[in-house]
């Protein structure tokens, strides 16, 4: 669980949402398995359906710690 949370912090750091609004307090990262995805026949390219999604919440302070440790 600790590794998954670290990966979520990494993903949130480089997400479009963080770049648009870095002062936001909490960011959500979706976790799902490949087996939970499905490509509908008439779907546009790049669109997928996801059955089960687990939402991991990442605090802005965790992202700042990650960025400080990267320097």
Kindly list the characteristics that best describe this protein:
alpha+beta, 3 helices, 71 residues
Structural overview:
It is a single chain. The mean pLDDT is 94. It is elongated and about 45 Å long. Helix content is 39%, strand content 23%. The protein contains 3 helices and 4 strands. It has helices at 2-13, 16-20, 60-70, and strands at residues 26-31, 37-38, 49-50, 54-59. It is an alpha+beta fold and 71 residues long. The strands form 2 sheets. It has a two-stranded antiparallel ribbon. Strands 2-3 form a two-stranded antiparallel ribbon. Helix 1 packs across helix 3 (60-70).
What is the gist of this entry?
The protein is α+β, with helices and mostly antiparallel strands and 71 residues long.
Mind sketching the topology for me?
Blueprint: H1 2-13, H2 16-20, E1 26-31, E2 37-38, E3 49-50, E4 54-59, H3 60-70
Antiparallel strand pairs: 1-4, 2-3
Helix pairs in contact: 1-3
């Amino acid at each position: 669980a600790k590794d998954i949370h670290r990966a979520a912090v990494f993903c949130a750091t480089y997400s479009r949402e963080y770049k648009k609004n870095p002062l936001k307090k909490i960011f959500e990262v979706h976790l799902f398995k490949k087996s939970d995805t499905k490509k509908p026949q008439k779907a546009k390219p790049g669109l997928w359906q996801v059955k089960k999604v687990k939402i991991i919440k990442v605090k802005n302070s965790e992202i700042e710690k990650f960025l400080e440790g990267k320097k």
